[in-house]
Structure formats: C-alpha cells, structure tokens
Amino acid sequence: MLVLFETAVGFALFKLKASGDLEGMDFEREFASPELANKAVKLKSFHKFGDITDALAAATAMTEGKLSKGLKSFLKDNIVSKEVQDKLAVPEAKLGQAIKEKLGIQCIHGSAVAELMRGVRGQIQNLISGLSESDMTAMTLGLAHSLSRYKLKFSPDKVDTMIVQAIALLDDLDKELNTYVMRVREWYGWHFPELSALISDHTAFVRTIIKVGDRTNFASTDLSDILPEEVEEKIKNDAPKSIGTEIAVEDLDHIKELATQVLEISEYRQQLFEYLKNRMTAIAPNLTLMVGELVGARLIAHAGSLLNLAKYPASTVQILGAEKALFRALKTKHDTPKYGHLYHASVVGQSSAKNKGKMSRVLAAKTSLVARVDALADESDTTIGLELRAKVEARLRQLEGDRVYKMGNAGVAVGPSTVEFNTPVKTYNDATDSTLETPKSKKKKKKDKKSDEDDEDDEDTTSKPSSEKKKKKKKDKAKRSADDSDDDGTPKKKKKKSKKKD
Fold this sequence. Notes:
Layout: E1 2-6, E2 10-16, H1 27-30, H2 34-40, E3 41-48, H3 52-63, H4 69-80, E4 88-89, H5 93-103, E5 107-108, H6 111-122, H7 124-127, H8 133-153, H9 158-189, H10 194-198, H11 202-212, H12 229-238, H13 249-283, H14 285-291, H15 293-303, H16 306-311, H17 314-318, H18 323-332, H19 346-350, H20 356-376, H21 383-400, E6 403-407, E7 413-419, H22 442-486, H23 492-501
Parallel strand pairs: 1-4, 4-5
Antiparallel strand pairs: 1-2, 2-3, 6-7
Helix pairs in contact: 3-8, 9-11, 9-13, 9-15, 11-13, 13-14, 13-15, 14-15, 14-20, 14-21, 20-21
C-alpha cells in the first residue's frame, strides 16, 4: 500500500511495509521512535515545492478536494507510468475521489488512514532525509500566512464584515452624538437657558449657536435659513429677557468648537448611513425590502454573517436581539419575548399592540426565507422579496381591519394612507335599559347572616351571666337563713335589710 502525504515543503509518497488490514495495526507503537517508523514505512519519492506560490496552490487545491497540476504530474510519474497496482491512502475522501476520476488510481480513506497519517506526521523529519527543522518551520509559517491571506481575500463572507462594522459604527456615532448634544445644550444653557426649549432639533440648535454666539447678537442675526420665522421671532423676543448669566469669550469659543464637532459628526453619520444603505441593497436586497436597511444590518451583525442568518430558523430570527429577556423569562418561568430586532421593522411598528406578536412571527418566517435567497441564490433578484412583502402586508391588513398602506420606492410601507373599517357603527340601544331593583349579591347575604349570628351570640352572653347571678343570690340566701337559725333566733339578714331601709 502507498501513502500520499503533503507537507509545507512538498509531496511525499511512502510505501507501507506491513501487509494486511490497517484496522489491526497499532500505529502508536509502530511510530514510537524513528527506528520503528523507518521499519513501518519507506520513502519512495519526494517532490519539493519551487516556492511559496506552488505550496499555496497545492494546499488550496487539497483543502477544496481538487487535484492540482503538481500533484497530478507527481502521481503520474510515480504510479501511473510505473504501472503500480497498489492502493493509495489519501488524507481526504474528496481528494481520493478526484484522483480516481482523473488518474484511475484506487484510493482509500478512513479512521485507520487518519491514524497512519498522524504517525507519519510525528516522524516526518526522520522519514525524509535532507529536511532540516529550520526549513520545515520557515515553510510552514510562510504557507500559513499565505493561506490565511488567500482565504480572507476570496472569502464569500468578507462583504458581510463591512456591514457588521458599519452598523456598529453607526450605533456608536448615535450614542456619541447624543452625549455631545446634551453637553452643548447644558453648557450653553448657562448663558441662554430658554433656547433649549425653543429649538428641539439638535442640528438646528448647534448651527444656531455657531452662527450667533452670544445671545446679544440674536437681534442683529438673520436665522431664516436655519429656523422657521415664528421660532426666530420668539427667540429674538426672549433673548433680551433671558435669565442666563454672562460668559467670557473664551468659554463661548469652546462651546462653538464642540458644536462644530457635533455638526461634523452628524454629517459623517449621514454619509455612513448612505454607504450602509448601498451595501445592504447590493448584498441583501430581499432582506432590505422585507425589514429595511437598519434592521437587516443589525440582524446580520447579530448573527455574524448573512450565511449564519440564513441557517437560523424563523423562531430564532424572531427573538434575535432579545436573548437576555428570553433567558430571564425561562429562569423566572414568565412569558418569553415575542420580538427582538424585528420590533423596529415598519410592519411591526404599524400594527396595534395586540397584533405585534403575530406580525413579528409572520415577519420572522418571511425574513428567514429571504435571507436564504440572498445568501445562497446565484442571482440577486428581488422578485421573491416583493412577493413575500406583499403577503406580510396582506396579513397585516387582515389583522388590522383592512387598513390600506402605501408602498415606497424601495418596497417598504411608509405608513397608512387611509383607514377603512368594514365593521358597522353600533348605536346605543335604549330598550336594554332596566329600572328593576337588582337582587342582593350573595356576599351581602353572607354578611347579613354573620351579623345576625353575632347579635344572637351577644344576647346569649349577656343572658348567661344574669342567670348565674340569680343562682348565686339564692345560694347566699339559703346560707344566711341556715346561720340565723343556728343563732338565738335573731335573724341577722333582716337587721341588715332594716339598716339599708333606714
């Protein structure tokens, strides 16, 4: 049996000395030392690569299960031309199939062959004469770097990386912009606090500060290109009556510098959004039609790539972005979340509160389908995306009572144009009114019974002590009468009574 082994330096062809089945061999013992390894296999031929380019081409072809030109000529010279009938052990099953189709050589592959390759790899420097350790290390390192660059250059997922980085940067810019704008408003609010309430738009607020500066300049500055006329007039009226403090010119310069940076970041954010929109339209057009650019980009970023998103089932896509809420609900045994990133999609946003869960489930099912189309289809066609989008909107109309929606240029619903309800308008029916007294509830009856029972108990308790007192009085009378009879016939009790009467 022959063994084909590839190294970073070149191809090696070994002859396995032992005959018989590979399953019964103990390769750990056979390759325990260089002497035993030379007894187990013998080097028959070795083909050294000319440079790193040849090594990269051979390694790339072998990883893809293809037969490179160098390997093909090597096998022809050593096996086909010499009419060797031995079987060839190969490291990959796809490579063995390609060799059999092109050259007609019988190839074998399996777990036993993998163990054999492991033993050869452990003693490769002792099996190939003239191969130094430094040359082997240098060629291995160079081939690893070249192969990594090649895979990164021709990776089908490399375009997804741009989307992931762009949406992450967009979120970071939004956070920074909010922080900077709040700082500008608070800082300038010491000088003119009323301006923050009059101008709600951040960009207009920043541009106004840059153009005017001190509040005393509002009266002589034209702001018609930034603000509406009524807002401008109100600001000019409030500026002289402001309760803000005076600030130095140096402080105002720093405020203007920060406002300028906010304006520049805002403009760059707009450019980045346009770039992200173009990339999403080119890479995932159907996904963009279904959920929009931002939601689609966040789904891709959360999954890692468009291909990973295509592998997810609809149930996973539905709660993508709500993992914390999901595990918290499972831990506390509460209801699981109904949506994650899909909550921000236009279709879910247009539905009522009671139908948001249903619409997110429908949208997740269609989103998983369009993601597979964008990731695996040969041609980028938006026909499937438009059809599925129409089905989602039809389901939305069914749930919301035939609400009509307008479609934008990109196929995204921009909002309800009209609202139509097929259900008839109900009027108040006077015939259902009733003036009969409502019967007492069971609770009231129970309360009345309890109160009656309590009253009876009170009467019993009051009557019992009175009867006991009468009995005690009778006993006392009998005792006293007996004592009086024992004495000289003078009744003591009568004397006491007579005293009382007196």
